[in-house]
Amino acid sequence: MERLLNKSDERSRKIESMILQRLAEKTQTSIAIELGVSESKISRLKNDDIPMISKLITCLGLKVVPDDSLEVSQAELKSIKTLARKYLEIDEMA
Description:
Strand content: under 5%
Pfam families: Phage_CII
Order of helices and strands: HHHH
InterPro entries: Lambda_DNA-bd_dom_sf (IPR010982), Transcrpt_activ_CII (IPR007933)
GO molecular function: DNA binding
CATH class: Mainly Alpha
CATH topology: 434 Repressor (Amino-terminal Domain)
Largest sheet: none
Structural class: mainly alpha
Number of strands: 0
Shape: elongated
């Protein structure tokens, strides 16, 4: 159980880190305008709520990934690995 909690905590920290990095790439003003809230609300969100939001995302079994990421299922990844292995073995025989 403790190992699961540690893994969950690690995922939450990674999510929190990713969110904070992306927040740092934009100004609080621009984010506030996009969300239709005050800059102080963004500041409070950043300082008070991001850790809890990150834990919530983890608890729900969700992931935070960049827009340009490509997500594949475990079954698809297994298929890709099988095909890659097959064709790499053929290439090594040639």
